């Protein structure tokens, strides 16, 4: 007997017991690698290997309320207390994307990937080719802020592909990130980055959002009568529209990435040019002070024009050129201004313009899709809104071309002005000036009249509370109106807008166009079925009820269609208060996803069973495990003087006596009392019971990649336990 007991204890091993700086409140195992992500009470996220080597630590700045890995394990979604969802790269924790889908804390996340490609009406697997790579080089990255080295800022470095990796790898398969907040709102984002729908269940607290293989959404909330919902669409967000959503999300998410490149490019350009012109003004504003100090009634422009015309040099201009500015000062200011101009040109050529061109191409692709009304009108791809966004993307390209012409002209005139000043300083100092670059007197006059006190480049780049219209001559405006008559665009006033204003209009048109699919899909997500489980105790806020909604693939039910090769399980602890006659029991339902269609055809596919927890124990946690097994974590009831023990019990679903549960198609309820005569009593002598020599709490994370690897947190310590399937199986700890 002692030998049997020892054999039951050995397989459950404490792998690690490590101290942590702050209490761990959330943990998630990576689905593909031996990595464990943990969120702590002090709002930090830690990533550790299985051997406890820490890879990185990040601080989102707000309290972390949920974690979820992307199915391929390359990115992790983080829910925050303010409703923000951030996506981070697994390699370095780098922020990839930030979504503001909620207004309150995101309490749960679930990222589901399509396991099998869907087939069209002809039985073929449809493929959609992104043709952008045929005509364009790889998409540009976000430019790096000048003066910073790699890792100093959030901008993507040239050596990193994380930002692009989020889009490219996630587009290989259709996936949806589901997020639920504490107010009962559930949002759905394709690839985790493109919002496609939202529903509100205001009187319930969302616990477990999920998506089945066919793209249908399942929620498992527990609150107010603890129901389980099944939602779908009239044509499904799954197989019927999955290909259309895939194509739209692919284009739209890439457009959003490129829009971010343009936004950051404009930010970097504005900062560089502002710093350069500040250097210019800092030096040349002193001339105005010298003019006033010498009692002259003139302006710096007039003094420079007099010097250019050959008049005698006035005392203030002589003092400014010879003493205040000097040859070194001119060269320094010239380097700052002309260097900034060249940097702006490079940013436009390498980042902003390629991004705008690819956006124009992708909008053209969406424009073609929007005209296929039979397929894409149903998901909200509005032709009029897409046409408007396409036109705005073309107008932005025109603005980029104009900005380049203005920038080139301004830089040329600045350079010419500085060359003239160097010549003047050489003459004043009676030094040879034959080696200096030549200057153009006419350009100096133009610079002094139109550019000395004005900055057309900054006007096109810098945001302002007051909208400044760009002056356009009447002849040019008439030409634009004549072009409108030929068709292709309808906006006559685009030349009056600045580059930044045009970008803001572009962003606004994108948001409006891409909001329509979100709104359309949201209205089509309907509650297909509603199953109350049980009434909660009188004080539900103080009672935690273990519950799990899971899927197991590979089981077929009677009457179930052949292409539905999965079965859903809803497991929950039955509260003792309203069910004293079936106290200390666990309820397990299966077949809920197929039950409504069965009821309409005259049969029910919903099955259930009640499991009676062994006397002297109570359930702490339960979940579905691989190979159709229910894993129960039980604590021994004990007095305050005895800590007691616990056990992990594995029950095969194939061994459970499920019974068919009758439901009415008009009355969405069923009674747990129907099952009290068919209770299955769990036995502690079962071979699938593992004893734990102390009481436990619900694990923060469980992984099946190494037997059963469970993570617990207590008193600022992290504990990892391993449960091996076979006694002679050795744990690989890398």
Summarize the structure.
The chain is an alpha+beta fold and 734 residues long. Helices cover 34% and strands 24% of the residues.
Number of strands: 30
What sort of overall outline do the alpha carbons produce when their principal axes are compared? elongated
- Proportion in helices: 25-40%
The total count of helices amounts to 13
| Proportion of residues in β-strands | 15-25%
What does the average pLDDT come to?
A: 77
Evaluate the radius of gyration: 34 Å
Q: What's the arrangement of secondary structure elements?
A:
Layout: H1 2-9, E1 12-19, E2 24-29, E3 35-40, E4 45-49, E5 54-58, E6 64-69, E7 75-80, E8 84-89, E9 95-100, E10 106-113, H2 132-135, H3 162-170, E11 175-181, E12 185-190, E13 194-200, E14 209-211, E15 217-219, E16 227-232, H4 242-293, H5 300-308, H6 315-370, H7 373-376, H8 383-428, H9 441-451, H10 456-461, H11 474-485, H12 499-524, E17 526-532, E18 547-553, E19 566-574, E20 585-590, H13 592-600, E21 607-612, E22 617-625, E23 629-636, E24 646-652, E25 659-660, E26 680-681, E27 689-692, E28 701-703, E29 708-714, E30 717-723
Helix pairs in contact: 4-6, 4-12, 5-9, 6-8, 8-9, 8-12
């Amino acid at each position: 007997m002692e030998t049997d007991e020892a054999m039951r204890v050995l397989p459950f091993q404490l792998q690690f017991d490590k101290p942590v700086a702050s209490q761990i409140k959330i943990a998630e195992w990576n689905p593909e690698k031996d990595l464990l992500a943990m969120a702590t009470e002090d709002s930090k996220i830690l990533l550790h290997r299985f051997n406890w080597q820490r890879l990185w630590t990040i601080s989102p700045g707000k309290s972390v309320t949920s974690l979820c890995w992307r199915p391929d394990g390359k990115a992790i979604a983080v829910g925050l207390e303010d409703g923000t969802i951030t996506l981070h790269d697994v390699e370095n924790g780098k922020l990839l994307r930030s979504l503001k889908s909620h207004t309150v804390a995101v309490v749960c996340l679930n990222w589901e990937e399509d396991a099998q490609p869907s087939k069209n009406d002809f039985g073929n697997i449809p493929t959609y080719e992104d043709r952008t790579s045929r005509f364009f080089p790889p998409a540009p990255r976000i430019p790096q802020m000048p003066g910073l080295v790699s890792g100093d800022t959030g901008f993507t470095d040239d050596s990193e592909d994380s930002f692009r990796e989020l889009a490219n790898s996630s587009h290989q398969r259709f996936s949806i990130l589901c997020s639920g907040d504490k107010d009962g709102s559930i949002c759905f984002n394709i690839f985790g980055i493109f919002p496609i729908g939202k529903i509100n269940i205001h009187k319930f607290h969302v616990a477990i959002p999920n998506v089945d293989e066919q793209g249908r959404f399942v929620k498992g909330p527990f609150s107010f009568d603890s129901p389980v919902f099944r939602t779908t669409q009239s044509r499904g967000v799954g197989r019927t529209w999955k290909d259309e959503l895939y194509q739209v999300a692919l284009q739209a998410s890439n457009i959003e990435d490129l829009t971010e490149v343009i936004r950051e490019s404009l930010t970097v350009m504005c900062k560089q040019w502002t710093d350069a012109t500040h250097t210019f003004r800092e030096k040349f504003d002193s001339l105005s002070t010298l003019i006033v100090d010498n009692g002259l009634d003139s302006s710096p422009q007039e003094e420079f024009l007099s010097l250019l015309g050959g008049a005698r040099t006035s005392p203030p201009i002589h003092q400014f050129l010879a003493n205040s500015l000097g040859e070194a000062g001119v060269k320094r200011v010239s380097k700052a201004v002309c260097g900034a101009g060249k940097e702006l040109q490079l940013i436009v050529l390498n980042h902003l313009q390629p991004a705008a061109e690819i956006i124009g191409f992708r909008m053209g692709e969406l424009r073609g899709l929007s005209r296929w009304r039979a397929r894409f009108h149903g998901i909200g791809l509005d032709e009029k809104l897409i046409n408007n966004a396409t036109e705005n993307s073309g107008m932005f390209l025109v603005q980029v071309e104009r900005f380049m012409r203005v920038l080139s002209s301004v830089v040329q005139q600045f350079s010419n002005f500085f060359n003239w000043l160097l010549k003047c300083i050489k003459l004043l100092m009676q030094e040879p000036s034959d080696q200096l670059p030549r200057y153009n007197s006419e350009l100096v006059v133009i610079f002094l009249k139109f550019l000395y006190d004005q900055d057309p480049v900054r006007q096109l780049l810098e945001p302002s509370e007051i909208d400044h219209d760009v002056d356009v001559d009447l002849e040019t405006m008439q030409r634009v109106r004549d072009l409108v008559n030929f068709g292709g665009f309808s906006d006559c006033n685009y030349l009056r807008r600045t580059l930044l204003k045009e970008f803001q209009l572009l962003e606004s048109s994108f948001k409006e166009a891409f909001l329509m699919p979100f709104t359309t899909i949201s209205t089509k997500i309907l509650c297909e079925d509603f199953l109350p489980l049980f009434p909660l105790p009188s004080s539900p806020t103080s009672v935690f009820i273990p519950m799990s909604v899971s899927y197991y693939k590979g089981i077929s039910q009677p009457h179930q269609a052949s292409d539905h090769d999965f079965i859903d399980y809803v497991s929950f602890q039955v509260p003792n208060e309203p069910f004293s006659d079936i106290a200390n029991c666990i309820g397990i339902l299966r077949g809920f996803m197929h039950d409504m269609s069965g009821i309409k055809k005259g049969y029910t596919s919903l099955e259930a069973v009640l499991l009676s927890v062994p006397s002297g124990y109570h359930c702490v946690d339960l979940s579905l495990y691989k190979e159709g097994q229910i894993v129960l974590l039980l604590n021994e009831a004990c007095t305050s003087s005895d800590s007691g023990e616990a056990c992990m019990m594995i029950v095969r679903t194939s061994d459970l006596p499920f019974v068919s549960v009758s439901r009415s198609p008009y009355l969405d309820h069923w009674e747990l009392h129907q099952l009290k005569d068919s209770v299955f009593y769990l036995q502690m002598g079962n071979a699938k019971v593992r004893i734990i020599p102390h009481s436990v709490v619900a694990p923060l994370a469980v992984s099946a990649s190494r037997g059963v690897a469970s993570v617990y947190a207590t008193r600022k310590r992290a504990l990892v336990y391993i449960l091996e399937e076979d006694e002679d199986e050795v744990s690989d700890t890398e």
